[in-house]
Write a structure and sequence with these properties.
Mean pLDDT: 89
Low-confidence stretches: none
Order of helices and strands: HHHHEHHEHEHEEHEHEHEHEHEHEE
Number of strands: 12
Shape: elongated
Distance between the termini: 75 Å
Strand order of the largest sheet: 2-1-3-4-5-11
Largest sheet: 6 strands, parallel
Number of helices: 14
Strand content: 15-25%
Helix content: 40-55%
Oligomer: single chain
Structural class: alpha/beta
Length: 338
C-alpha cells in the first residue's frame, strides 16, 4: 500500500494542500474545526511526516540517536549496554521520544551517520558514548549543532553536556582493597586502549603503584570474552603470575574465571578476580565475582534527563557527576596464598 501524502489527505478532507500543511504543523490559517477534521483524517490514514519534508519544515523528529562503533558480537553479550539502553529509553518514553540505535564498524562510519541524520533531520539530539583520545566526533557534532550529551566522560574543550562517573576513583577502590588483602602482583585486563575511560583506569593503577607497593601491569583488549580469556591464559601461563586480576568488564571477568578453572587455578585460593562492571553474570558465577556495582538503568535515565533539558534549552552545558560505583565483595577475592 502506498504511503499516504498531504495531497491524499487534502482530497479526502476537501481542502487545499496548504490547509493540510497548516493543520499538520500547528500553524495558523485554518479554523479549529477544519484543523480537527484534517488531523482526524491523517490519523485514520496512518499518515506520518516524510523525513525530507520534516527537515525542510524544521519540525521535531521526536527521536534521539545513538551510534556505537563496536563489534556487534561484543555488544550482544554486554549487560552494561542493555541496562544503559533500557534506562535511556525509559527516560525518553515519558516524552514519547524514541531512541534510534545504529551499530557501525568504526568512527568514520559513525561520523557519516551524524552528518546524514543532521541533513535529513532524523533526530533531535545525540547520545555519545566511548569517548576516545583526541575524539574527532566532538568537533563534528559542534559543527552540526545537534544537541548532544556525552555519557561516561566530559565533553572536551568548550564542553558538551555530559553524564559521568569517576572511573579513576572506582578503580582506586579496587586496587586499594586488593592491596589491603595483601596482594602486590596485580594484573589489569583493560578495555580498548584508545577509549578515555580505559586510559583513566590504567593511569589510576599506575599512579597507585608506588603508594601501595604494587607490581602491576595493564593489558589492553577489545572488551570481548575471547580476548579476556586469551589474556588471562597468557597471564596464568607466565613464570610470575599475578595473585589478582582486575577486568574492565563483567563479560571478560566471567571468561577469565572460566580459564582459571580450566587451568586448575583455584579462585580465590590462588587467584583473586574482580570485575569493573557488576551484572547478573557476575552474581550467578561460582564463585560469585567481586565487582563494582552501580545502578546502570538509572545512569541511562539521568542521561536522558540531561538531554531533554538540553533540548529544551540548547545553550545549557550540564556536566552531571553520578555516584561513584561501589565495590561489592563476593566470593572471588581473598588474601593471597602464603
Amino acid at each position: 500500500m502506498a504511503r499516504p501524502t498531504i495531497a491524499d489527505i487534502a482530497d479526502r478532507a476537501g481542502v487545499s494542500k496548504g490547509a493540510v500543511s497548516f493543520a499538520l504543523n500547528g500553524r495558523p490559517g485554518v479554523s479549529e474545526a477544519t484543523r480537527a477534521r484534517i488531523l482526524e483524517i491523517a490519523d485514520q490514514m496512518h499518515w506520518r511526516p516524510h523525513s525530507a519534508a520534516r527537515a525542510l519544515g524544521g519540525s521535531k523528529a521526536d527521536s534521539i540517536g545513538l551510534v556505537i562503533a563496536r563489534p556487534a558480537r561484543t555488544l550482544g553479550v554486554e549487560p552494561f549496554f542493555a541496562q544503559l539502553l533500557s534506562g535511556l529509553q525509559s527516560g525518553l518514553s515519558a516524552r514519547s521520544i524514541s531512541l534510534q540505535l545504529l551499530i557501525v564498524e568504526d568512527t568514520a562510519a559513525e561520523i557519516e551517520v551524524y552528518r546524514r541524520w543532521a541533513s535529513e533531520h532524523r533526530v533531535d539530539g545525540i547520545v555519545l558514548v566511548d569517548l576516545t583520545i583526541k575524539d574527532p566526533r566532538l568537533d563534528v557534532l559542534r559543527e552540526l549543532a545537534i544537541p548532544t550529551v556525552v555519557i561516561g566522560g566530559r565533553g572536551g574543550r568548550d564542553s558538551l553536556p555530559s553524564v559521568w562517573a569517576d572511573d579513576r576513583e572506582a578503580m582506586l577502590s579496587i586496587v586499594e582493597y586488593l592491596a589491603a588483602l595483601g596482594h602486590r602482583r596485580i594484573a589489569h585486563v583493560a578495555g580498548t586502549p584508545n577509549f578515555q575511560h580505559t586510559q583513566r583506569r590504567i593511569r589510576a593503577i599506575r599512579d597507585a603503584m608506588p603508594r601501595l607497593g604494587l607490581d602491576a601491569v595493564s593489558l589492553p583488549t577489545d572488551f570481548s570474552d575471547a580476548e579476556g580469556a586469551a589474556t588471562t591464559r597468557k597471564l596464568l601461563s607466565g613464570a610470575k603470575r599475578p595473585t589478582a586480576i582486575v577486568y574492565d568488564s563483567d563479560v571478560m571477568a566471567v571468561a577469565g574465571l572460566g580459564v582459571a578453572m580450566e587451568m586448575g587455578v583455584s579462585v580465590p585460593g590462588e587467584l583473586s578476580l574482580v570485575a569493573f562492571d557488576d551484572s547478573v553474570l557476575t552474581q550467578l558465577m561460582h564463585p560469585a565475582l567481586t565487582a563494582l556495582s552501580r545502578d546502570t538503568l538509572d545512569f541511562g535515565r539521568q542521561a536522558a534527563e540531561v538531554l531533554l533539558a538540553v533540548l529544551a534549552d540548547p545553550t545549557q552545558v550540564i556536566n552531571r557527576k553520578t555516584a561513584t560505583p561501589v565495590l561489592t565483595v563476593r566470593e572471588s577475592t581473598a588474601p593471597p596464598a602464603s
